[in-house]
Amino acid sequence: MLRGKSGRKNAYRRRLPILLLVLLLIPALAGCGSKTDTTGETEVQKAEDTVFRFLGQDISLGEVYLYAKPVIEDYDKTYGSEIWVMNVRLDENKNQDMVTLTRRDVIENIVKVKLLLKKAPDYGVSLSDEDKTTIETETESFWKNLTDEQIDQMKLERQMVHTCIEENLMAKRVYEVMMSQAGIEVSDEVARETTFFDLYFPTYTEKSDGVLMPMSGEEKQEQYDKAVQAYNTLINPAEDNVKKDPSLLASYYNLKDATYYTMTPNEILTTYGKDVYDMLYTLEDGSCSLVTETEYGYHVFYMKALTDRDATDKRKARLEREQRNEYFTRIYEGWLKEEDPNYHYEDSVDFEIYDRIPFQ
């Protein structure tokens, strides 16, 4: 049976964005208050609450907590506490629990912000007076919302929060300049989503065990006659609302699988085949096709929007976001090898200390 889009979106897990910068308005971002090794020595004694070292800096438990806190709260609010006992399928052969994945994401985002911060001079980035005002406001707001227990257990200080927000905003500005220079833009043609109604008259019946049984020649003729009648009603409706809403005809003919679809050109091609694809893109908005036969039955297509503006804009934003992420990841991986080739998540993180941050 040809039915619309498959595997469009996974609602079970929302990975962290490429940066936690978008959470600046929930002022809880960090990578701050770090102790920097300026001795030039190869071996440096870590502080007792250091989760890992990066670019010669001790990244403390408090710093990591300020990254983790908004993520934990956001996931709990969006999905509920059960999110933390969920396993996520990474590929055909590997699953991983949500806590492990999120813990790694938090550390990776600290690393990204630190690298962006280091590259700020290369991109000529500095903070404006407006940025500095934002930093002060968000610092005050966040600090007031910390409990005494959180401050004590995670060894937090107000200046640490201030530095967190300052560093993240600087990193965000560097990222914005990078993306501006990259010139990533997706055209309407590439992002196009088309919305149409498929008045579908099947020429088979489905048995209880799922087996499809072709209709008899007489039954097929009846379905064809109904499709022709539906077409004539669409082009010469007795009432205007029929043409504006083909679902009225679907109800009249009791068509269970007749509905609106919003699909990309490739999805239309894959679902319906080239003949239907070519025919659909000859239609204009508000027009309908002749009765069209496929291996599944007869169709009358009503074209609502060759380019569905809302759906196309959303897909364009998603494609541009994906391309920006891919672009940044390529640069980021190069920076990481260049700036701190000895850093590796599994080997560099002190998980005994990191475990003091509860993720569930």
**Widest sheet: strand order?**
9-6-11-10
- Give the helix/strand class: alpha+beta
Question: Which percent bin holds the helix content?
Answer: 40-55%
Strand-residue proportion: 5-15%
Based on the model shown, name its key terms.
single chain, 360 residues, alpha+beta, four-stranded antiparallel β-sheet, 14 helices, disordered N terminus
List the helices and strands and how they pair.
Elements: E1 35-36, E2 50-54, E3 57-60, H1 61-79, E4 87-91, E5 94-97, H2 98-118, H3 129-144, H4 148-153, H5 158-182, H6 188-191, E6 194-202, E7 204-206, E8 212-214, H7 217-235, H8 240-244, H9 247-252, E9 259-263, H10 265-272, H11 274-280, E10 292-294, E11 297-305, H12 309-339, H13 345-348, H14 351-354
Antiparallel strand pairs: 1-3, 2-3, 4-5, 6-9, 6-11, 7-8, 10-11
Helix pairs in contact: 1-2, 2-5, 3-5, 10-11
Could you characterize what this model shows?
The structure is a single chain. This protein has about 350 residues and is of the alpha+beta class. About 50% of the residues lie in helices and about 15% in strands. It has 14 helices and 11 strands. The protein has a 4-stranded antiparallel sheet with strand order 9-6-11-10. A 3-stranded antiparallel sheet has the order 1-3-2. The chain has a two-stranded antiparallel sheet with strand order 4-5. A hairpin with a 5-residue loop joins strand 7 (about 205) and strand 8 (about 210-215). Helix 1 crosses helix 2, helix 2 crosses helix 5 and helix 3 crosses helix 5 (about 160-180). The chain is elongated. It starts with about 35 loop residues before the first strand and ends in a 6-residue tail after the last helix.
